[in-house]
Amino acid sequence: MSESTGTPTHCPYCALQCGMRVTALPGDAVDVAANGGGLCQKGWTSGTLLNSPARLTTPLVRVDDELVPADWDYALGLIALQLSAIRFEHGADAVAVFGGGGLTNETCYALGKFARVALGTSQIDYNGRFCMSSAAAAGIKAFGMDRGMPFPMTDLAEADVVLLVGANPAETMPPFVRHLERCIENGGLIVVDPRRTPTADAAALHLQPAPGTDLALASGILHAVVTGGHLTQAYIDERTTGFAEAWRVAATWWPERVEQVTGVAAADQRRAAQLLAGGDRAYVLTARGTEQHANGVDTVHAWINLALALGLPGSMGSGYGCLTGQGNGQGGREHGQKADQLPGYRRIDDPVAREQVARVWGVHPAELPGAGRSACELLDALGTDDGPKALLVFGSNVVVSAPRSNHIADRLAALDFLVVADIVLSETAALADVVLPVTQWAEEGGTMTNLEGRVLLRTKAIEPPGGVRSDVEVLAGLAVRLGQPAERFPTAPETVFTELRAASKGGVADYSGITYQRLRAGEALYWPVPDEDHPGTPRPFLDRFNTSDGRARFVPVAYQGQTEPVDADYPLLCTTGRLLAHYQSGAQTRNIPELMAVAPEMFVEVHPDTAARAGLADDDEAVLISRRGQVCAKVRCLPSMRLDTVFLPFHFPGAGRANLLTNPVLDPASRMPEFKVCAVRLTKVENGT
Ligand code: SF4
Fold first, then answer.
1. What value does the mean pLDDT of the chain take?
2. CA–CA separation, 535 vs 517, rounded Å?
3. Neighbour tally for 422: CB within 10 Å
4. Does 579 have pLDDT greater than 90?
5. Which of 61, 257, 282, 528 is the most exposed place for a label (fewest CB within 10 A)?
6. Measuring CA to CA, which residue among 154, 209, 110, 118 is closest to residue 452?
7. Secondary structure of 134-181 in the HEC alphabet?
8. Hey, whose CA ends up nearest to atom 6 of ligand 1?
């Protein structure tokens, strides 16, 4: 297929949201082509799942411990009946809702409204809490606004120096790397990652700290910037506050001390400082490796402090940004599926926001519940005396993706009623009382907001299989059965978006000036877009930050040690991450034969000497054990691994679930769990293990 035929839409997976064209072919097949840019392996094969035998095409209802087909009317009627009975007996908060960062803006908005209005529950959160919440919290505090990249990613093409922290775009979003080509060619790419990833391979300087220590590393580089005479004093005076307090802490982290903690040579810290200070156009970009810690917010602040010391944020051609992971990770945290939030990225405890959103929704502000539990706390409370008794899950596979996943399965089993809406029978759906088959990307319209805060139109390219409904149709069907007027829950994506625009008006993420018509016309609209004549805001911080005084905030942060240090029983640091061939819990990509051929099973990356000490070699079956569980994995020996570190991908189910090991301890501000480091031991599979 040429790049000019087919329906233009966007890839179903990551936050890069690559443009593609989709054409229905004779029979059930579809053709996928790149639309202008490139696609990775996942994008090229995304059409396969549309007609996969794994696809759900009818509701399933549990009868005698088996899921059996049912018609929609029966399935929705059963859900409404059960939810009503549970609410009557235990109150509105006994019903919880869990969303996802891959859902369209329209679905996220409708889900938040459905929870607050049709169910009256405060108990709603989503899997984006696992993904970007630490950078979001830090961005709001430092800049007054959380927009992952507050500049178009094409700006990176002119960069002299880019410091990438805890990010591996060469595998997770390969087409992104073309924006770094100039910087790579000029020897300006610095990568901070405990692993020697393909991204680190392209770097002029790879800093390889022990997992969980990069707050200390950021402090060491900041120390080198200040003592090396690279501080941008005029910028600090004019555009920031709090440098003196932040420096008082960072001054105690000189590079030699940081080397003791992180393993990164003091000379390399100084070289990073010199490279960053020497580039006219420099960027600091962080990602999950920075965030997914019990001190994730502080860690992000440490890198923001470094960027501010160098005068980067809000300067043309330079900046700080966070690479969002999930397809709609940005939009998914703006429109109300988060426990403490209303549409437009406004707080649910803000009386003005409550008043406006209640008016748009046709209810009294007092009827809107307050803030609920965050994702991990919500999952942890399921089936407990004062926790939810029923859960509705949309677009998330928590049995694989949540930390300490065996405990999560136990909590789901303790529920009176579990409903899952999904496209395949995920590991979570398999536990449900009712499973609802829903549309996927090419079968539905809607908008997605990519990692730059640019709103993109997802155009329906093909008809869904008979028996499948969109998420908003499911929510509308349930709302009516729960006694809501039908007109309060529209099902046409454009109508839902029109309402979202009104609800977001005046908020930080103001979409009120964005229309489907403008998007169809090809306008590149970055929020906020406060009216239909507004051109959008690609670089929101050039003149001022979004704080009350327009200045960015340095925040004093101190490295406090790893949350779960190694000891004699658990002597290795385990870190987790993504592979090129898979996406998130793998519910979609594990059903694509081409991708499974590339990455079929769980493995552990380990230094050959570390493996040998455990009596293991390449391709041996190993068991990794943490304080919470154990995981089976095939050994891959890599000399580039640190001797104290093992790596596990988190896409695999069953006994290969990396999250059987992970530590559910939460960041105190963002409530993000500590996915990125836990203490483990590596052992050989003995007979009977
Ligand atoms: S980089 Fe991301 S958006 Fe682009 S094709 Fe790959 S998975 Fe899809």
1. 94
2. 14
3. 23
4. no
5. 257
6. 154
7. HHHHHHHHHHCCCCCCCCCHHHHHHCCEEEEECCCHHHHCHHHHHHHH
8. 40
Compute the distance from residue 450 Cα to the ligand 1 centre, in Å.
11
Q: Which residue out of 17, 20, 21, 39 has the highest number of ligand 1 atoms within 8 Å of its CB and is therefore the one to mutate?
A: 39
- Ligand 1 centre to CA of 580 (Å) is 10
Amino acid (one-letter) located at 645: T
**Position in ligand 1 atom list of the atom nearest CA 43:** 5
> How close is the Cα of 327 to the center of ligand 1, in Å?
9
* Number of residues written out for the chain: 689
Q: Whose CA is nearest to atom 4 of ligand 1?
A: 18
Supply the Cα-derived Rg of the chain in whole angstroms.
24
Confidence at residue 219, expressed as pLDDT on a 0 to 100 scale = 98
Cβ–Cβ < 8 Å for 374, 671:
yes
Nearest CA to ligand 1 atom 1: 173
* Separation of alpha carbons 548 and 557, rounded Å: 22
Ligand 1 is surrounded, with C-beta below 6 A, by: 11, 13-14, 16-18, 39-40, 42-43, 173-175
The number of C-alpha atoms within 13 Å of 135 and in the hemisphere containing its C-beta is 31
- Ligand 1: distance of its center to the CA of 14 in Å? 5
Whether omega for the bond prior to residue 12 falls within 30 degrees of 0, making it cis, is: no
Question: What CA–CA distances, in Å, run from 252 to 168, 216, 223?
Answer: 30, 10, 8
Crossing angle of helices 105-113/471-481, nearest 10°?
10
Residue 617: CB atoms within 10 Å: 12
Q: pLDDT (tens digit, 9 = 90+) per residue, 501-547?
A: 999 999 999 999 999 999 999 999 999 999 999 999 999 999 999 99
Residue found by looking up tokens 């707080």 in the block: 347
Cα–Cα–Cα angle for 456, 462, 467, rounded to 5 degrees: 115
The protein residue whose alpha carbon is closest to atom 2 in ligand 1 is: 14
Per-residue pLDDT tens digits for 380-411:
999 999 999 999 999 999 998 888 888 999 99
For residue 173, the CA-to-ligand 1 centroid distance in Å is 6
| Distance from residue 355's CA to the centre of ligand 1 (Å) | 39
